[in-house]
């Protein structure tokens, strides 16, 4: 696959997000990025939309559903939600949406901080492989990939979407 | 008698946490890094994460403790575990049940982790050797041997205030002899690579050959405090003393009590720590304990985050094992 134009995609997401917010009459959304790629994307969008409230960041390690299988994850930066989420319209941002499990974990964590008025999901890439009924509100692009194909955002300077083929480990009985 | 690597599993990860002695720097740092993230959880309105939902943790306290037991209990609850507090003094051992029988019973209740506090050195190791393979054990203080979670919360407090360990001079003052906290701190500090660890106290309260642990010994408080970044005061443990190790509490305070005048010998930005409970007017004056350089209450808050980190790392390693097997 050739290199994807991430900057172009981000510009498109920005304008669609502005349109979405106008349509919904949301003038002060609260943006939250999921570590690590989602934070990079959110920083760009946060800047483009000139949002007043500081960007929130989520580290969903404590909410993952695979703890009982693989234990604690190597740690990235902690979650930081500088403003209360109570009654706020939230724009949740991630780089790649695949199974939906990360977003499920992020929603659980957000609700442990308070009760938002609404949550919209923005992803750079929506790829096939969903395991939960979670759909993005705004998507940069959609990709049909096989289970053994992976797409990964590298960055933040410059952004690069990398496609990897990996061997599927044999499923143990 | 104490088998040192019982706490490390085949993959080099923590199975139990019984002592800081012999634990590699990378594992200690991992605990501190995880604790940093758990600190953020304590600042939220809902101070709970679902990591240990469904696990059962038993606090086995054979020796009284308020702070340690409470922070372990809070840490477990903030990880969504179920907690049993078993106060052994008023429990079955007084009815003649053996320790091993009691452990079998707790295993039969499907407990996953034991937090053990005991007046006898080596008690947590003993229990770790005799529990069923799926049970994890954390030492919450055994005799004068080790108190590894206290040492780690102290390392965490130091790192939060001072950043890197390499340039630090640290003084541990007072009753080193009876202090499991001091032993665990010395092992952790030397592994983390601080520049210098000093122990300051009267000869009668220093263990013999304490220099072998890699520390510098001082008997004079002002001399020992010169240029230090961190001062750790220890409680005078009268309950563990047999015979007259100090002339009187008043004289001890004169010589080794931390007052503003003595504190002035340390670096101006030195922090003052104490594992608690503090004896005001015995090892520390109220002006210092409540003063701007004191981080004593912060240590208590940090104790929750560090215990959340240790419990989740250990339970996570256990789940990892079981995942591989299934």
Which secondary structure elements does this structure contain, and how are they paired or packed?
The complex is a heterodimer of chains A (173) and B (326).
Chain A: H1 6-23, E1 30-34, H2 37-48, E2 56-58, H3 67-70, E3 89-97, H4 101-113, E4 118-127, E5 138-143, E6 149-154, E7 160-165
Helix pairs in contact in A: 1-2
Chain B: H1 25-42, E1 56-61, H2 67-78, E2 82-87, H3 99-108, E3 113-118, H4 123-130, E4 136-142, H5 148-162, E5 169-173, H6 180-192, E6 196-200, E7 216-218, H7 221-225, E8 230-233, H8 249-256, H9 260-263, E9 271-273, H10 286-289, H11 296-325
Parallel strand pairs in B: 1-2, 1-3, 3-4, 5-6, 5-8, 6-7, 8-9
Verbal overview:
The complex is a heterodimer of chains A (173) and B (326). With 173 residues, chain A is α/β, with parallel strands linked by helices. Helix content of chain A is 27%, strand content 26%. In chain A, helix 1 crosses helix 2 (37-48). Chain B is an alpha/beta fold. The longest helix of chain B is centred in the last third of the chain and has 30 residues, at 296-325. In chain B, the strands form 2 sheets. Chain B has a 5-stranded parallel β-sheet with strand order 7-6-5-8-9. Chains A and B meet through helix 3 and helix 4 of A and helix 1 and helix 11 of B.
Low-confidence stretches of chain A: none
Would you tell me which CATH topology of chain A applies?
Answer: Rossmann fold
Helix share bin of chain A: 25-40%
H/E topology pattern of chain A: HEHEHEHEEEE
| CATH homologous superfamily assignment of the largest domain in chain B | Aspartate/ornithine carbamoyltransferase
Q: CATH architecture of chain A, please?
A: 3-Layer(aba) Sandwich
CATH classification, class level of chain A? Alpha Beta
What's the helix-strand series of chain B?
Answer: HEHEHEHEHEHEEHEHHEHH
Widest sheet, order of strands of chain B: 7-6-5-8-9
The chain pair forming the largest interface, with residue counts per chain, is: A-B, 20 and 24 residues
Strand content of chain B: 5-15%
What oligomeric state best describes the polypeptide chains here?
A: heterodimer
Count of DSSP H/I helices of chain A: 4
Structural class label of chain B: alpha/beta
Count, helices of chain B: 11
Morphology call of chain A: globular
Number of strands of chain A: 7
> How many discrete structural domains of chain A?
1
Characterize the largest beta sheet of chain A: strand count, sense, and whether it forms a barrel: 5 strands, parallel
